From TrEMBL:
GO terms for molecular function: RNA binding; RNA methyltransferase activity. Pfam families: SpoU_methylase. It comes from Blautia segnis. The lineage of its organism: Bacteria, Bacillati, Bacillota, Clostridia, Lachnospirales. Residues 124-268 form the tRNA/rRNA methyltransferase SpoU type domain. One of its GO terms (biological process) is methylation. This is RNA methyltransferase. The keyword Transferase applies.
């Protein structure tokens, strides 16, 4: 096909998106307008395309041109497809490609918290979760286990970072999400905005003064914001103090806590049952 371009020179400017630019540089590529991100694997790329994200170019291993990537590439016959053998692509990108395909895509303007929450009754709120693997896993659980949206504080890892989106299996393109506005302080103003929208807040925290995760009062709440904290330290003391409920997942065998991604799956399943009943 005419849009297939064999990689012969690593210094080709268009390859900089894959070879030399960091995640942050891609994010700021068109600053102050939304920048770019790199999606990895056919499933993730297709879900991004289905959600309306626009490809800039593709980077594809030779064998996948007529394989896993073929159906996606056929949708964009004019978009450049840079291609080479697997070993060449590893040298170019510096990491092993998942199923031999990357795609540079344009970001979109994020909606406001109010827009995201307009028709939501169960939302996940992530406070300073910085690990991209955890972000991706939390998004996958949120999408699968009946959350309506995900809200992130400014200290969180970007859900569109390559690893986060890949671990999520592309669910970052399926469930609505956004950041609290940088002008809004968290937890003070952010928590107030949730309350004004009618949400009761649930702090997932290792505290003895907590209610059971299966407490009927929680399930009965019309709107819940389920708040999870950063790896290691968990939620800030002020966030916990400002919440309507504090919930602790019961543990056995002297295990003191779960990874935040594992805890999110338990919390979303139990606290999202109201949404399950509406399906």
């Amino acid at each position: 096909m005419t849009n297939w371009i064999e990689i012969k020179d690593f210094n080709t400017p268009e390859l900089g998106l894959y070879a030399s630019l960091s995640e942050v540089q891609l994010l700021r590529y068109y600053e102050p307008k939304p920048g770019l991100f790199i999606a990895e694997s056919p499933k993730v790329i297709q879900r991004a395309v289905n959600a309306g994200y626009e490809p800039i170019s593709f980077l594809v291993e030779h064998k996948d041109l007529e394989g896993a990537a073929k159906e996606i590439l056929a949708q964009f016959p004019e978009t450049p497809v840079y291609t080479a053998e697997y070993d060449v692509l590893i040298k170019l990108t510096g990491f092993a490609l998942t199923r031999g395909m990357l795609c540079a895509m344009k970001r979109r303007q994020l909606p406001s918290v109010e827009e995201i929450c307009q028709n939501a009754c169960r939302v996940a709120v992530l406070e300073n979760v910085v690990n991209p693997t955890n972000i991706g896993a939390i998004f996958r659980s949120a999408a699968a286990l009946h959350m309506d949206a995900v809200l992130l504080t400014g200290g969180c890892c970007d859900p569109l970072y390559r690893r986060a989106a890949r671990v999520s299996m592309g669910t970052v393109f399926q469930i609505p999400w956004t950041y609290f506005d940088k002008k809004i302080s968290w937890p003070e103003t952010g928590m107030d905005s949730l309350k004004k929208m009618g949400f009761k807040s649930v702090a997932m925290a290792l505290r003895d003064d907590s209610v059971s995760i299966d407490d009927p009062a929680l399930l009965a709440e019309e709107k819940l914001a389920i708040i999870l904290g950063t790896e290691g330290d968990g939620l800030s003391g002020q966030t916990i103090a400002d919440c309507d409920y504090t919930v602790k997942i019961p543990m056995s065998h002297d295990v003191d806590s779960l990874n935040v991604a594992a805890a999110s799956a338990v919390a979303f399943w139990e606290l999202g049952k109201k949404n399950l009943n509406h399906i």
